[in-house]
Amino acid sequence: MILVLFIPILLMTAVVLMFTFNPGKKKRAGLQGKAGLWMLYGYTFILLLSAAAYLLLPMEGVTSASEAEANHGEEQFPYFYDIFHTGNIEELPDEWVVKQWTLNFDRDELVLEAPENDINVVNIFVEKTSDLEGTIEATFYQTPVSVNGHSVEKQYHPSIQVQEGTLEIYPSNIVQLRYRMFQTEFPFEQFTGDKDQRWGQSVTGSDSALYIKVPEHIQVRSSPNTFNMVTP
Amino acid sequence: MWTMSLTEVQTVDVVKKQIGYKWRAYTGVFMSLVIIQLLGVLFSLNGSGSGGYGRTGYDIMVQYFSGDIIIVFTIFWGFLTALLFTTRAYREDDFSFITNRTSSTISTILFLFVISVIGGFTSLLSGYLLKVLTYILFPEGKTLLISNPEGPGVWIMGLVSVVLIIFMFSSIGYLAGMMIQWNKLFLILLPVLLFGSMTWLAQSGVMVGEYFYQFYFQEKNFILYVMKTIVSTTGLYTFAAFISNHLEVKK
Question: Is the Cβ pair A182, B145 closer than 8 Å?
Answer without folding.
Answer: yes
